[in-house]
Amino acid sequence: MKTLFFSCMALFIQFTDQKIEKFLGVNINELSTELLHNTLKEGSIYWILNKSKEEFYGHEYNRIIFTTDNKDVIESIDLIFPGIVLDLQKKLEEGHYGKANKNFIIDKVEEGEEIETDFAFLKESYIALKEDGPNTDTTPFLVYWYKEKFFIKLLFDYDNNKTSILFSVNKEPTP
Questions:
Q1: Rounded CA separation 25/23 (Å)
Q2: What does the pLDDT read at residue 41?
Q3: pLDDT above 60 for 4
Q4: Which helix or strand (DSSP H or E) is residue 96 part of?
């Protein structure tokens, strides 16, 4: 078995220097042992905090989420950024990925019921999206890039003041 990385720091450096999608389809057990020891795991989901303060396209992300299939093969990688990082779309387009295929904006929001759990009160929201034209000045909510073997989903979560970028194997995404 080939070890892809030697430390947690090496993984974060790889994300900043090279295309992140190369990790899709890799067995998560091929990542460094140190990385996996610094991971919270629930089922097929692995959470890793960015304690080394590394960046992706010039923005510090605070965690990485790997999702695997039943054979521990990485199906998606999600980087979570604090705050709304609107220039990330432009940086991805000017970087390796080219112009986004689809942009969605919020059309309508409907508030749902409050849900009480053991840990928090949650409130459901139903968000209707509409596709936005390529040359408008509207603020995006969701942006997609469709590539041959993977897709990218960029989400601007205004309510929770965070941005996430998901790299996933090529299954048709839903808005």
A1: 6
A2: 79
A3: no
A4: none
